């Protein structure tokens, strides 16, 4: 009998270490790995430069603090005249959509693959080893949920792409489709597509418009949009080729004319902060119209009350026409998640495995305690 009890105790301890001990190594992100990114060729005065970034995938997410630093350098490739290039340092918040802060510059990594810096000129970086961001990143920094949101046609025609615009499919007019990070949406003439986020925020994509859905907002390639965003702790980001704007909750319109390379922000409610061509920040209030192009920028006033009234009054009607329900997220099918993963859009699964292992471990530990107490009796 005593041998049997000892055997049960030993088996219990073995199971405890098998299930519980590995939990120490379960994080909300993959192991630390060094990442490098290289820019396109940039012409600065007479110099031809290529910029390099070096940082860690986990950044400041790791509590040790040893992976948050970013180092960079400018490499002169031609017409150098003795110029060896500058070096610079900064910090990285971590994750496939983490934030870089280098001096006065602040910019985000996009899906672990690329980033764009707006300074006195635009610099596009491509990550050399994006596989460093593979795996699950269970960090709540996204505005666009991992499972996506739903959008539907209000009128006209629209197409969507899940391979970065290489091929497009027609969006059906008989119900909503699930929209996720990286999807490209393109509307036709006299058309409108509407997206409803889980918190009730609304994005209207108007006629002849092309946008890319980002984890933290939207990139407008060309065309016209309207936003009605609820106030929350996360910043919604709107990008065009010329500028980036951060929004915490407001109603505003954004358009970008590809022919003239001009971006326009019309603020109707709340406030919007835009990044200026010199990388400064400019807050905009209701009635402000911010226009930026290759010649610079200007802020003028416009009468926004009629536009705001019309757009907000139409929201419920347009949601009904697009057949969107209240939660703004109809598609929860796991097989569809796999489909997006195969098409190159990363999704983060719910990390249920550590919870199950902890529960099993607690049960095993409780059984061991009961056995030991009985032995003492």
Walk me through the structure.
The chain is an alpha+beta fold. It has three domains: 2-26 and 351-376; 34-133, Beta Barrel (Lipocalin); 149-321, Jelly Rolls (Sandwich), CATH 2.60.120.1440. 18% of the residues lie in helices and 38% in strands. It contains four helices and 26 strands. The chain has helices at residues 2-19, 305-321, 334-342, 353-376; strands at 34-39, 42-44, 47-56, 69-78, 87-92, 99-102, 105-110, 114-118, 122-127, 149-155, 158-161, 169-170, 177-179, 184-187, 192-196, 202-205, 210-214, 217-228, 236-239, 244-247, 251-257, 262-269, 272-275, 281-284, 288-293, 296-301. The strands form two sheets. The protein has a 17-stranded mixed beta sheet that branches. An eight-stranded antiparallel barrel has the order 1-3-4-5-6-7-8-9. Helix 1 (2-19) runs antiparallel to helix 4. The longest helix has 24 residues, at 353-376. 31% of the residues are buried. Residues 21-26 and 327-353 have low confidence and may be disordered.
**Could you give the distance between the termini?**
14 Å
CATH class of the largest domain: Mainly Beta
Radius of gyration: 25 Å
* Count of discrete alpha- or pi-helical segments spanning 4 or more residues: 4
CATH architecture label name of the largest domain: Sandwich
* Biggest sheet descriptor: 17 strands, mixed
CATH topology description of the largest domain: Jelly Rolls
Q: How many structural units, i.e. domains?
A: 3
Give a quick precis of the structure.
The protein is of the alpha+beta class and 377 residues long. Helices cover 18% and strands 38% of the residues.
């Amino acid at each position: 009998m005593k041998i049997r009890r000892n055997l049960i105790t030993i088996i219990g301890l073995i199971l405890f270490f098998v299930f519980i001990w590995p939990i120490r190594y379960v994080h909300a992100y993959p192991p630390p790995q060094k990442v490098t990114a290289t820019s396109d060729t940039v012409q600065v005065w007479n110099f031809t430069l290529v910029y390099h970034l070096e940082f860690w995938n986990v950044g400041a997410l790791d509590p040790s603090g040893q992976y948050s630093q970013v180092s960079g350098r400018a490499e002169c490739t031609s017409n150098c005249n003795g110029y060896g290039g500058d070096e610079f340092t900064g910090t990285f918040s971590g994750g496939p959509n983490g934030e870089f802060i280098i001096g006065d510059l602040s910019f985000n990594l996009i899906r672990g693959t690329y980033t764009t810096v707006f300074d006195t000129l635009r610099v596009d970086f491509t990550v050399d080893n994006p596989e460093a961001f593979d795996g699950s990143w269970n960090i709540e920094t996204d505005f666009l949920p991992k499972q996506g949101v739903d959008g539907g046609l209000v009128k006209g025609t629209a197409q969507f792409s899940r391979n970065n615009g290489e091929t497009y499919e027609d969006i059906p007019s008989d119900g909503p489709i699930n929209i996720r990070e990286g999807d490209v949406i393109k509307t036709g003439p006299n058309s409108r597509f509407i997206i409803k986020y889980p918190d009730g925020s609304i994005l209207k994509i108007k006629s002849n418009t092309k946008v890319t859905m980002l984890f933290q907002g939207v990139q407008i390639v060309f065309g016209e949009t309207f936003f009605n965003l609820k106030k929350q702790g996360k910043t919604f980001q709107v990008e065009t080729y010329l500028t980036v704007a951060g929004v915490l909750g407001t109603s505003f319109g954004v358009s970008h004319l590809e022919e003239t390379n001009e971006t326009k922000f019309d603020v109707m409610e709340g406030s919007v902060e835009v990044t200026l061509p010199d990388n400064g920040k400019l807050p905009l209030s209701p009635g402000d119209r911010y226009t930026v192009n290759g010649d610079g920028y200007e802020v003028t006033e416009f009468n926004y009350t009629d536009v705001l009234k019309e757009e907000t009054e139409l929201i419920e009607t347009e949601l009904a026409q697009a057949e969107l329900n209240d939660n703004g997220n109809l598609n929860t099918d796991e097989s569809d998640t796999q489909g997006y993963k195969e098409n190159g859009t990363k999704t983060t699964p719910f990390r249920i495995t550590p919870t199950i292992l902890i529960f099993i471990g607690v049960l095993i530990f409780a059984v061991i305690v009961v056995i030991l107490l009985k032995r003492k009796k």
